[in-house]
Amino acid sequence: MNNSKGIIFDLDGVIVDTAKFHYLAWRKLANDLGFDISIEQNEQLKGVSRVHSLKYILGWGNKTVAEDRFEQLMASKNEDYLQRIAHMNEEDLLPGIKKILDYLTENNIPFALGSASKNARPILRGLQIEDKFKAIVDGNDVTKAKPDPEVFLIAAEKLGIPPKECIVFEDSVAGIQAANRADMISIGIGDKNILKEADYNFADLAEIDLEFIKKIVSK
Ligand code: B16
Ligand code: MG
Question: In terms of CATH, what superfamily is 6-17+89-218?
Fold first, then answer.
């Protein structure tokens, strides 16, 4: 098998469903400020950094806050979120991911994480898959949020593989755009009508068979 390809996985929505916990924590924050956010609004926060998420939310609630209050709100949302994900374990891996990671490991195909989350490492640790990744690039390593390609370009560099030879699994529009801008192959996980800019689309990882992975890493 041609092993010159590298794979980059997004975290939330690809490896684990943390979006529901982000939503509960952001919703509590909004409620405390006197307004609500909908599931549809939460969709727009997928793949978006913490700071940008709070900016959107305050905009939706027509709130403006001073800089120190903004920092406090981000910190309290994160504390709430961390409590909600504290008990995450292997059983929280999304269907299909384990099989793919095992296949890549067995075939020496390197893979990295490319996530906007600053909590990515403890989450991977809880899921007991942190050690499988050759590189982990998260919200602590980047200065520009998706759709900027920075997170994926750093991941490719850490894998030692040219961007053109990297394949990205992503569930957010911003993430697919970031992968495309990085000149990587993009695989959209979720609604193909939303992720229409992806090179390939699957409803979820369980829909992907190993033949597809074999084919795409051999191209
Ligand atoms: P944190 P991903 C993203 O993860 C989430 O989709 C997004 O909703 C969240 O705001 C962002 O991480 C930052 O997360 O507050 O933990 O730093 O999809 O890029 O893996
Ligand atoms: Mg995601």
Answer: HAD superfamily/HAD-like (3.40.50.1000)
Reply yes or no on whether 12 is catalytic.
yes
Examine the pLDDT at 10 and tell me if it is beyond 90.
yes
Strands (E), 133-184: 135-137, 166-170
Q: Residue 10 catalytic?
A: yes
DSSP, collapsed to helix, strand or coil, labels residue 1 as coil
Q: State in Å: Cα 195 to ligand 2 middle.
A: 12
* Angstrom distance (rounded) from CA 155 to CA 132: 15
Q: How far away, in angstroms, is 218 Cα from ligand 2 center?
A: 26
Alpha carbon separation from 24 to 20, 155, 173, 204 (Å, rounded): 6, 30, 21, 23
pLDDT at 69 over 60: yes
